[in-house]
């Protein structure tokens, strides 16, 4: 009788251990997926950061005119592309699209908040 009780306890302990390990694996996979998809990527710790805009200096098109898209006018007064300056051109705003106020771009264009949108060199040639 005693042997049966011990075996039952051992089986319960193994079942509990298996459940805890399965739960830990699931949580780990969720965290890894969130890290890969991350809402906002922080600048690399080694990269210099543009303090006013909180992004890497080599990505800050607001401060560095060389990083801006060629041919697009720039509103110096409001520090954004002219076609995205709702102060100067409120009629141009597409109210149906979400707008990133922090970087003065539409959310679906904001490569700072969404690094996966950053154009690769091959894409620019198209």
Note down, in words, how this protein is organized.
- The chain is α+β, with helices and mostly antiparallel strands and 126 residues long.
- It has helices at 2-37, 121-124; strands spanning 49-50, 55-56, 74-75, 80-81, 99-100, 105-106.
- The strands form 3 sheets. A two-stranded antiparallel ribbon has the order 1-2. The chain has a two-stranded antiparallel ribbon with strand order 3-4. It has a two-stranded antiparallel ribbon with strand order 5-6.
- The longest helix has 36 residues, at 2-37.
- It is elongated and about 85 Å long.
- The model is unreliable at 121-126 (pLDDT under 50).
| SS content category | alpha+beta
Q: Output the radius of gyration.
A: 25 Å
Mean of residue pLDDT values: 75
What is the molecular shape?
elongated
Give the neighbour order of strands across the main sheet. 1-2
Number of strands: 6
Strand percent estimate:
5-15%
Q: In this structure, how is the largest beta sheet organized? A: 2 strands, antiparallel
Order of helices and strands: HEEEEEEH
Provide the number of structural domains: 2
Query: In terms of per-residue confidence, which ranges show pLDDT below 50 for 5 or more consecutive residues?
Result: 121-126
Distance between the termini: 78 Å
Fraction in helix = 25-40%
User: DSSP helix count?
Assistant: 2
Main features:
single chain; 126 residues; alpha+beta; 2 domains; two-stranded antiparallel ribbon; 32% helix; elongated; disordered C terminus
Short description:
With 126 residues, the protein is an alpha+beta fold. The chain has helices spanning 2-37, 121-124, and strands at residues 49-50, 55-56, 74-75, 80-81, 99-100, 105-106.
């Amino acid at each position: 009788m005693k042997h049966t009780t011990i075996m039952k306890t051992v089986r319960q302990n193994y079942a509990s251990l298996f459940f805890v390990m399965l739960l830990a694996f699931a949580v780990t996979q969720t965290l890894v997926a969130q890290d890969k998809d991350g809402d906002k990527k922080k600048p690399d710790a080694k990269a210099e950061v543009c303090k006013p805009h909180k992004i890497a200096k080599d990505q800050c098109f607001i401060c560095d005119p060389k990083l801006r898209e060629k041919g697009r006018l720039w509103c110096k007064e409001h520090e954004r592309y002219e076609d995205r300056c709702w102060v100067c051109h409120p009629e141009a705003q597409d109210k149906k699209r979400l707008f990133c106020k922090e970087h003065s771009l539409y959310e679906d264009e904001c490569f700072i908040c969404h690094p996966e949108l950053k154009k690769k060199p091959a894409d620019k040639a198209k």
